[in-house]
Write a structure and sequence with these properties.
Layout: H1 6-32, H2 44-64, H3 81-89, E1 96-98, E2 102-104, H4 108-121, H5 128-131
Antiparallel strand pairs: 1-2
């Protein structure tokens, strides 16, 4: 079993939480951009609608979770990486329809699904239990 010092655990915790928050903020910027292109439709009108729905949903969820302003910073007091992952995975999002009542598949669950997996995958030799805030 891999043993870590408290400082090493804290550093990895900081990096994991920062990576997750940075990923959320990068998505905010992506959806806010006038150049945003929906991954399911290259149509500029559809991309505008899609980006608007995702931007609004993400902004509301960041506010609800207290992650909006001010943006959380190290040492991330009161934040647990595993709890934050769960909160991101369970963010609410609008489901919407476009022309002729066709369901549009973009929502926060599909848009953020890989974020927690990717960040969790960067944490090697350290269990989620060890990353809980001390």
């Amino acid at each position: 079993m891999f043993l870590c010092t408290t400082d090493a655990i804290d550093t990895r915790r900081y990096l994991a939480i920062e990576s997750l928050i940075e990923g959320l903020y990068k998505r905010l910027e992506m959806y806010r951009s006038t150049d945003y292109t929906c991954r399911y439709s290259g149509d500029s009108h559809m991309s505008f609608q899609c980006g608007s729905v995702l931007l609004g949903s993400l902004m509301k969820e960041l506010y609800r979770l207290g992650l909006d302003q001010p943006r959380p910073e190290i040492p991330f007091s009161g934040l647990s990486f595993s709890v934050l992952c769960g909160q991101v995975q369970n963010m609410k999002s609008t489901e919407w329809y476009h022309a002729r009542n066709d369901y549009h598949p973009c929502n926060l669950k599909t848009a953020l699904g890989d974020l927690t997996t990717d960040v969790s995958g960067t944490i090697i030799d350290l269990s989620l239990e060890e990353l809980k805030h001390r």
